[in-house]
Design brief:
- InterPro entries: AbiJ-NTD3.
- This is AbiJ-NTD3 domain-containing protein.
- The chain is an alpha+beta fold and 462 residues long.
- The protein folds into three domains: 87 residues; 135 residues, no CATH class; 207 residues, no CATH class.
- Helices cover 44% and strands 15% of the residues.
- It has 18 helices and twelve strands.
- It has a four-stranded mixed sheet. Strands 1-2 form a two-stranded antiparallel sheet. A two-stranded antiparallel sheet has the order 3-6.
- Strand 8 and strand 9 form a beta hairpin.
- Helix 1 packs across helix 4, helix 1 runs antiparallel to helix 5 and helix 14 packs across helix 18.
- The longest helix has 18 residues.
- The radius of gyration is 29 Å and the shape is elongated.
- It starts with 6 loop residues before the first helix and ends in an 8-residue tail after the last helix.
C-alpha cells in the first residue's frame, strides 16, 4: 500500500537539509548542486547569502518535484542518521510497501537465530547502519566510555552473542515500532547476498521469515539474481478473501448429488455415491489447509491409526480422481508431492478435482445464466486466506468435435469464468497441457512455479 505523501513535512525536512548544504558548499557550487538535486536555479550570488539562495531555490520548487529532490538528497548527500531516517520515512511511506504487524515482527524475532549473519559481522553492521540510528562512537576523556548502540551491538551481539537475543536487538533498534517500509527493507537486507553471501543461508532465513509473513499476506519472493545469488523482495501475496471455506468437495469421480440437511447452517450431505466424493469439513485456519491438516481429517474420518498407511491411501484416493487422459494433471499432482516429499506435513495440500461452484441443473438447462468453470483441476488454500486455482488446459478448453474445430466461444466462456473467480478473491494459474505432458520438462516448470508461489525451496531442484 502507499499513503498520500506528506509534502508539507517533506518540504520542512528538505529545508533542514539546506542548512547543512549551504555550510558545506560555496557560492560557486550552488548552481551545480541545485541542478544535481533537481531544484530550480538559485538567485545570483550578489543578491543573497548562500542560505537565502538555497531557500529561494527550494521555495520555487513545485510540490510534485519534492519527492524527486528528497530522493536525490538521499542518494548523493551524507546526512546524520536521524535526519536521514526522517527523510527516508516520509519518502518511503509515499511509495508501495507491505504492512507487517508488530506481533508478526516479534514472533519472527523470537525464532530468528542470527548465527549465519554474524559470520559476516562487517556486512551485518553495514546493514544496520544504513537503516537504524546506531549513534557515533564517543569517548569522554574525563571519564569512562559512554558507549553507543553500535558499540553495544559489537559487544553484546557480535563478540558475545549470548548476551542479547534477537528480540533484544530488535528492541534496541526500535524495529518493532518502526514504519512498515523501514522494517520491510530490513527484512530484504537480512535476506540479501550483500549481507549474507551464502545462498543456503539466504534461503534458510527466507524460509523462516516466510513462515511468519505468509499468514499476514506477505512473502520474501525471489526476483532475479545478483552476482549469481538469489535476490529477494518483500511482496504482498494475492488479495485473498475475508471468508473461510465451510465445505471442500474434491477428488470427485462424477457430479455430486448434494442436498442440504440444514439450509440454515449450510450443512450438506452427499445423497448418492458418497464413496466417489470427498468432503473436507474441518475448519481452515490462518495458515491455510496443510497436508498435515488433510491427513488428520483422513485418519479421523477413516479410522486409520497408522500415519504412513493413511498418507499412502489418501494420496492414492486423490490420484484416482484425476482424468485418465490428462498426463499433464497427473504429472502436476505427482511432481508436487515429489518435490516437497521431505516437507510434506508443512506444505499446503493440493486438492484435485475441486468443486468451486455447484449447480443442481446442467448448463443446457440453465442456458446463458449457467455458471462457468464449476469444477477446477486443483485448489490450494494458502496462508492469508489465499485461494489458488491451478488449471491444466488441454485442447478441450478451446476446441470442439474432439479438437478438430477451434471454438472461440468455448475459450471466451473459460476466460469469463476466470474473471469471475478473480473477482471472488481466487488466484487462477493456467498451464498448457504441452508444458506438463513430459515429466522432465514439467519438473523444471513446476519447480520454479511452486518455489515462487510458496516461497519454499523444493527438496531437490533439477
Amino acid at each position: 500500500m502507499a499513503e498520500q505523501m506528506d509534502l508539507q513535512r517533506l518540504r520542512s525536512l528538505i529545508e533542514g537539509v539546506c542548512i547543512t548544504l549551504y555550510q558545506r558548499y560555496g557560492h560557486e557550487d550552488l548552481p551545480a548542486l541545485c541542478e544535481r538535486l533537481g531544484l530550480p536555479s538559485p538567485p545570483p550570488k550578489d543578491q543573497a547569502t548562500k542560505h537565502e539562495r538555497l531557500t529561494a531555490s527550494l521555495g520555487a520548487c513545485p510540490d510534485d518535484r519534492l519527492p524527486h529532490v528528497a530522493q536525490a538528497v538521499l542518494d548523493s548527500e551524507p546526512l546524520i542518521a536521524p535526519q536521514q531516517m526522517e527523510l527516508q520515512d516520509v519518502v518511503w511511506l509515499g511509495g508501495d510497501y507491505v504492512e507487517i504487524p508488530g506481533r508478526t515482527r516479534r514472533e519472527l524475532a523470537k525464532e530468528l537465530d542470527l548465527s549465519d549473519h554474524l559470520k559476516y559481522p562487517d556486512r551485518f553492521l553495514t546493514l544496520l547502519g544504513s537503516l537504524w540510528d546506531l549513534g557515533e562512537d564517543e569517548f569522554n576523556v574525563w571519564g569512562p566510555h559512554r558507549g553507543t548502540l553500535r558499540s553495544d551491538i559489537q559487544r553484546h551481539v557480535i563478540r558475545f552473542p549470548d548476551d542479547w537475543s534477537t528480540e533484544d536487538l530488535f528492541e534496541q533498534l526500535r524495529a518493532f515500532e518502526a514504519p512498515h517500509p523501514r522494517f520491510g527493507r530490513f527484512l530484504e537486507g537480512l535476506a540479501s547476498s550483500e549481507v549474507l553471501p551464502d545462498e543456503q543461508a539466504q534461503r534458510r532465513f527466507v524460509d523462516l521469515a516466510d513462515r511468519h509473513l505468509q499468514p499476514v499476506g506477505a512473502q520474501l519472493r525471489q526476483e532475479g539474481e545478483t552476482d549469481g545469488y538469489p535476490q529477494f523482495h518483500l511482496r504482498k501475496l494475492g488479495r485473498g478473501t475475508a471468508r473461510r471455506p465451510r465445505n471442500l468437495i474434491f477428488a470427485t469421480q462424477g457430479k455430486p448429488d448434494i442436498r442440504f440437511t440444514s439450509a440454515l447452517d449450510n450443512d450438506i450431505e452427499i445423497a448418492e455415491q458418497a464413496d466417489k466424493i470427498l468432503v473436507y469439513n474441518h475448519p481452515v485456519g490462518k495458515n491455510g489447509l496443510l497436508w498435515s491438516d488433510l491427513l488428520c481429517w483422513w485418519q479421523e474420518s477413516r479410522s486409520i491409526a497408522d500415519t504412513e498407511t493413511a498418507s499412502r491411501t489418501l494420496y492414492d484416493r486423490m490420484q484416482a480422481s484425476l482424468p485418465r487422459e490428462s498426463a499433464g494433471q497427473k504429472n502436476l499432482f505427482w511432481l508436487y508431492h515429489n518435490l516437497y516429499k521431505g516437507q510434506l506435513p508443512d506444505v499446503p495440500a493440493l486438492l484435485p478435482e475441486i468443486w468451486v461452484h455447484w449447480d443442481p441443473k446442467t448448463i443446457r438447462e440453465r442456458g446463458e445464466r449457467a455458471m462457468q468453470n464449476l469444477r477446477m483441476d486443483f485448489l490450494m488454500l494458502l496462508p492469508g486466506n489465499r485461494r489458488v486455482v491451478l488449471e491444466v488446459d488441454g485442447m478441450q478448453h478451446y476446441t470442439r468435435d474432439g479438437g478438430a474445430v477451434p471454438d472461440s466461444a468455448k475459450y471466451a466462456a473459460t476466460m469469463a469464468g476466470d474473471r469471475d473467480l478473480k473477482f471472488r478473491g481466487y488466484e487462477v494459474f493456467r498451464f498448457g497441457h504441452d508444458e506438463l505432458r513430459d515429466r522432465e520438462r514439467a519438473r523444471h516448470v513446476l519447480t520454479d512455479f511452486f518455489r515462487t508461489l510458496l516461497g519454499r525451496t523444493p527438496d531437490s531442484s533439477p
